[in-house]
């Protein structure tokens, strides 16, 4: 909860079994109320790992619906849980969960209605080998 607003983190997952724990452990649970993981028919044990970690809301697509379909399932469940603030976090540790507090505060303090993070703007992703385009 942040200023009486329910904060929900959604994790759109595909083949995230090896990186999920690191991502999950860094979520700031002093402000995050719920975590939702939607697995998009991963061939690994992402769902088992999510349950082992204690994630209460785990949804598994039997057929891969793609990134957009995964996001829709994430947001649908967040709305069902009556989230006031939703944070999308990739469970493969592409983005650090350490920024959740800063991003939530911008929305929770009503400075901005939406906040986006970018790995590209700082050029760190490019230095790390991410292609400029695909």
Compile the SSE list and pairings.
Layout: E1 7-13, H1 20-25, E2 34-39, H2 46-53, E3 57-60, H3 66-80, E4 85-88, H4 100-108, H5 124-127
Parallel strand pairs: 1-2, 1-4, 2-3
Question: What's the gist of this structure?
Answer:
The chain is α/β, with parallel strands linked by helices. The protein has helices spanning 20-25, 46-53, 66-80, 100-108, 124-127, and strands at residues 7-13, 34-39, 57-60, 85-88.
Taking all Cα atoms into account, the compactness measure Rg is: 15 Å
Largest sheet: 4 strands, parallel
**How much of the polypeptide forms β-strand, as a percent range?**
15-25%
- CATH class bucket: Alpha Beta
Find the CATH superfamily.
Answer: Spore Coat Polysaccharide Biosynthesis Protein SpsA, Chain A
| DSSP, total strands | 4
CATH topology: Spore Coat Polysaccharide Biosynthesis Protein SpsA, Chain A
Globular, elongated, flat, extended or rod-shaped: what is the shape? globular
Spans of at least 5 consecutive residues with low confidence = none
Tally the structural domains. Answer: 1
Whole-number mean pLDDT: 93
Question: For the terminal residues, how far apart are their CA atoms?
Answer: 39 Å
> Could you estimate the helical fraction of the residues in percent?
25-40%
Name the structural class: alpha/beta
Secondary-structure arrangement, i.e. CATH architecture: Alpha-Beta Complex
Number of helices: 5
């Amino acid at each position: 909860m942040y200023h009486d607003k329910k904060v929900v983190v959604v994790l759109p997952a595909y083949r995230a079994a090896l990186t999920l724990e690191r991502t999950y452990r860094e979520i700031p649970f002093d402000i995050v109320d719920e975590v939702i993981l939607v697995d998009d028919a991963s061939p690994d044990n992402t769902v088992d790992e999510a349950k082992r970690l204690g994630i209460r809301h785990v949804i598994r697509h039997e057929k891969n619906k793609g990134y957009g379909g995964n996001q829709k399932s994430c947001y649908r469940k967040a709305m069902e849980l009556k989230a006031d603030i939703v944070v999308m976090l990739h469970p493969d540790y592409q983005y650090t969960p350490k920024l959740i507090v800063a991003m939530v505060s911008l929305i929770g303090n009503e400075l901005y209605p939406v906040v986006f993070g970018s790995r590209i703007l700082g050029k760190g992703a490019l230095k790390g080998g991410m292609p400029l385009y695909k």
